[in-house]
Amino acid sequence: MIMFKIFINEFKNNNFLSKTQFNNHQIIYNNYKNNLNLFLIEKKIFLKNKLELIDIISDLPENEKNQFSYILGGYLNHEYFFKNISFNKNFCFGEIKNKILKTFNSYQNFEFNFIKCLQNFIGWGWVVINNKKLCILKTYENNNPMYPISLGGFNSVPLLCIDLHEHSYIIDYTNNKNLYISNFLKNINWYEVENRYQNYLLNI
Ligand SMILES: [Fe+2]
């Protein structure tokens, strides 16, 4: 039986998140991890990796599907989010940069669309790749873009994730969600995003 763990960023002083905001959010992420492990133990579900978990949702009884997809998404989505934020300065580069420029014409236009699309949304914001196309998407509740459409997903590969729930910014930004999103854009771990994109390219 494997127990799932949380990914922990090494916190450094930065202009994006305070230590308090960051720690409070990690507690929420950790709770999803605990609930996921508990659910798997209770149901005696033994798996080797996280992505297999998505496949088993459809095998669960109807009354457990929503509960499980919510816990699993809460865990997976936070992992995507925490892995793709950075407290070190780095810039968009590589194949993902080329793809963004091709899709949005300029990096500024990508940022503009990202903020415009997500500023009034409560849930999760994503840049995904689907059928070789780059898109900005939103998912409700804790749905993950890899989930099938019947479960609120898009059968898409997540490249970049932002948590748009109030708990992810309220301490630092009160209601200024726009500023939260634009600061997020300045603190992306582009090595992680490039890595996700390269993995996608290797598997198509
Ligand atoms: Fe969150």
TrEMBL record:
One of its GO terms (molecular function) is superoxide dismutase activity. One of its GO terms (cellular component) is cytoplasm. Pfam families: Sod_Fe_C. Signal peptide: none annotated. InterPro entries: Mn/Fe_SOD_C, Mn/Fe_SOD_N_sf, SOD_C_sf. SUPFAM superfamilies: Fe,Mn superoxide dismutase (SOD), C-terminal domain (SSF54719). It comes from the Bacteria. Residues 94-196 form the Manganese/iron superoxide dismutase C-terminal domain. PANTHER family: 37S RIBOSOMAL PROTEIN S26, MITOCHONDRIAL, SMALL RIBOSOMAL SUBUNIT PROTEIN MS42. This is Superoxide dismutase.
